[in-house]
Amino acid sequence: MASSGEEISNLLNINSWALAVLVATICYAVNIHLIKYWLSEIKPLAISSLTVTFAGLPGLAGLLLFTDFTHKISSITTLESGVGKSLMAILVLGTFSTAIALIFFNKLIKKTSAVFASSVTYLIPVFAIAWAIVDGEALTAVHFMGLVAVLGGIFLINIKK
């Protein structure tokens, strides 16, 4: 039976955001496997430093080439301006939320199993909603249903048989 052009078009019509989530999940799995089994002799600080550096370089290139970042930087007069505050927030979040958490995550991978360490990532939706509440964002029932679906799925997968 031959497929019509419309059926093929529908098959190739992929939600890019859903694809990004799938790719991120695969990257988490590959990352944990590499750290646990191939980089076990390297200190977590060194792994984290290289990870942040290699992720930061393309990010910096994109920032400089495809945004008006350099114009905004040149217009900063004090750190009290909106741009200055934003840059300080990025610096603090990049340091504490990313680099330090990555060091602890890499230590956790080395000291425990890869499966246990990966389970830490399941808490990300919980903290995302907590920060949204602190920030005063409008949360709907859909947000909480999504959280329950993620955590419920994890629970069902990990039930001892």
Number of strands: 0
**Low-pLDDT segments, ≥5 res:** none
What is the CA-based Rg, rounded? 21 Å
Number of helices: 8
Q: Describe the biggest sheet?
A: none
Strand content: under 5%
SS-based structural class?
mainly alpha
State the end-to-end distance.
42 Å
Instruction: Report the order of strands and helices.
Output: HHHHHHHH
Q: Mean pLDDT across all residues, rounded?
A: 80
Globular, elongated, flat, extended or rod-shaped: what is the shape? globular
Helicity range of the residues? over 70%
What's the number of domains? 1
Protein name: EamA domain-containing protein
Keywords: Membrane, Transmembrane, Transmembrane helix
Transmembrane segments: 14-34, 46-66, 86-105, 114-134, 140-159
Family: Belongs to the EamA transporter family.
Task: Characterize the structure shown.
With 161 residues, the protein is an all-alpha fold. The protein has one domain. The protein is built from eight helices and no strands. The longest helix is centred in the middle third of the chain and has 30 residues, at 82-111. The radius of gyration is 21 Å and the shape is globular. The model has no long low-confidence stretch (mean pLDDT 80).
